[in-house]
Amino acid sequence: MFEYNRRSRRGLPPVEPNGANEVNGANGADSTDGTPPAQEIRRSSGQSAMPVSLPSSSSVPPSRQQARSGLNRDDGRSDAYSKIHDQVQRQLLADLNVATADDPAEVRRVLDRLFNEALAQSDLPISRGERSTMFDRLVADIIGLGPLETLMQDQTVTEVMVNGPHMIVVERNGVLEETNLRFKDDAHVLRIIERIVRPLGRRVDESSPMVDARLPDGSRVNVIVPPLSLIGPCISIRKFARHALTADDLVGKEALTTEMVDFLRACVDGALNIVVSGGTSSGKTTFLNMLSSFIPSKERIITIEDAAELQLQQRHVISLEARPANIEGLGAVPIRQLVINSLRMRPDRIVVGECRGPEALDMLQAMNTGHDGSLTTIHSNGPRDTLTRVETMVLMAGVDLPLRAIREQISAAFDLVVHLERLPDGTRRVVKIAEVQGLEGDTIVMQDIFLFVRSGMREGRIEGRFTATGVRPKFVEKLEAAGAKLSPGLFSATNRHSNGW
Fold first, then answer.
1. How far, in Å, CA of 271 to CA of 484, rounded?
2. For residue 194, is it within any domain?
């Protein structure tokens, strides 16, 4: 969010503790309200600050642009900010009581007062814009997410990845970009991690070096720290979409065609069991959310997820979320138990955010015992590989079933596999829609219905077309019996749509 000036920081003298160690007891122990000790944030003369940049000029108001240029001048202002930062940090620990420490509004009010006092004592001549920028930076460093704060506010960023303190990468439009933002050191990253996991009652340390968490806005966070991470603390944040993408949005992004949407809508209305497959960050959850929007509002829907991401708009929705074990290793509730429990909740539809383990067996049992119209996602490299992975996950349940019996269950349960890919240019597309036709011998028979055929690359964008294979699915009669009206030429091999690039 801010740009540290290396040259002006090289000669930074050490800041005297001024009794900071006594604020929270001997040896600078953590305060009773969980606030990090002041000495952890002090900058020493032996540390060089890493450069951090503000957003581009196009996204920064004129006053903020002026403030940014003012703060980056090599005139000692970076040194002055460091002194103000440390002074405010120490005074905050002394002034803030336990009762108000967890109230962001109260903390911000105290910070504003302390900042104004420190600024008056420094006699630093700054403009109103510079003052606003310095204060925002101070708030982000002390009670926010530090350098990540501006990225979390940037609507063009979909994922944020911290690879140790000196490398922060973001994803924009499906493409990874390295930013100029940096943390000061490992301790700085760990303080931000602590702010993320502490409200959830979780901890991250050498005895528990990995954690999955969720930010208040719904964004998913994964953290891994040394000794498992050899490059320092690492954070991966998948930002939660404020507005769920609709079918029209996905058509506008050339993820699929209108005809494919109509076909999938008929499949959901007709209560077919659908699996959405794809690799990491291929858009499976977004697509599952879109498919779920086609479920009739009169039906009772139960969603089951590791971290709640689905945004169903129907009224009769029960959302269940798996729970990890606590610090003592107790109290875990995996997805498999939730799937079993959901069968006792009189569901019309069961939507599992992702099958990745033994819950696959219970999902198959649900689909084969009258719970038609269920939806789920699976990580895989293609429709055929999806079914192979389901076989493997069923075996993980520890049930000694013959392989043929498992394949019979799979072929009877799944009707359709929709496979997505994130292509090299960053676009996400439905590359295959395949029907599961049944079992012949020991082989599950599948038939492609729609394909995305790549034809080349131009100006960094992948060219191609969506096309039907000319094969009419066997379940069309079931869809028509449910009231679906499909175009006679929908499955014709001449039904092709170029992406037009």
1. 11
2. yes
Q: Residue 397: helix, strand or coil by DSSP?
A: coil
Q: Give me the half-sphere count of Cα atoms (radius 13 Å) on the Cβ side of residue 30.
A: 7
Q: Cα 254 to the chain's mean position, in Å?
A: 22
Question: Helices 104-122 and 128-142 meet at what angle, rounded to 10?
Answer: 130
pLDDT confidence of residue 206: 85
Quick: pLDDT tens for 153-204.
Answer: 898 999 999 999 999 999 998 889 999 998 988 998 998 998 888 877 778 8
- Structural domain containing residue 298: 254-498
CA dist., res. 49 & res. 205, Å (int): 25
Measured CA to CA, the distance from residue 190 to residue 205 in angstroms comes to 9
Comparison of pLDDT for 207 and 477, the residue scoring more: 477
pTM score, two decimals? 0.75
In-domain check, residue 157: yes
Residue 228 shares a structural domain with residue 288: no
Which two structure tokens, joined as six digits, stand for 56? 């581009």
The residue to which tokens 């990845």 are assigned: 161
Q: What is the CATH number of the domain that holds 375?
A: 3.40.50.300
Bridge partners for 432 per DSSP: 419, 451
| Average pLDDT for 425-435 | 94
Query: Angle, nearest 10°, between helix axes 77-95 and 62-71?
Result: 100
497 Cβ neighbours under 8 A, 6+ residues apart: 257, 259, 465, 466, 467
In terms of Cα–Cα distance, which of 269, 260, 249 is closest to 311?
A: 249
Which tokens in the block code for residue 492?
Answer: 């014709």
Q: What angle do CA 272, 277, 280 make, to 5 degrees?
A: 155
Task: Inform me whether the pLDDT recorded for 322 exceeds 80.
Answer: yes
Contact (CB, 8 A) for 319 and 351: no
pLDDT tens string 325-364: 877 778 889 999 999 999 999 999 999 998 989 999 999 9
Element (H, E) at 419: strand 416-422
Closest CA to 90 of 32, 19, 193, 183: 19
205, 199 contact by CB (below 8 A): no
The gap from C-alpha 359 to its chain's centroid, in whole angstroms, comes to: 22
pLDDT per position as a tens digit, 86-96:
666 666 666 65
Token duo for residue 71: 């703060």
User: What are the residue ranges of helices labelled H in 293-398?
Assistant: 335-342, 359-367, 383-395
Cβ-contact 442, 484 below 8 angstroms: no
Angstrom CA distances, 411 to 114, 232, 384, 414, 436, stand at 67, 46, 12, 6, 6
My answer on whether 197 and 280 are in the same domain is no
Report how far residue 356's alpha carbon sits from residue 339's, in angstroms, rounded to the nearest whole number: 13
- For residues 202 and 34, give the distance between their C-alpha atoms in angstroms, rounded to a whole number: 13
Asked if residue 247 belongs to a domain, the reply is no
296: how many CB neighbours lie within 10 A of its CB? 14
Write phi, then psi, for 149 (nearest 5 degrees). -60, -45
The residue with tokens 């079931």 is 478
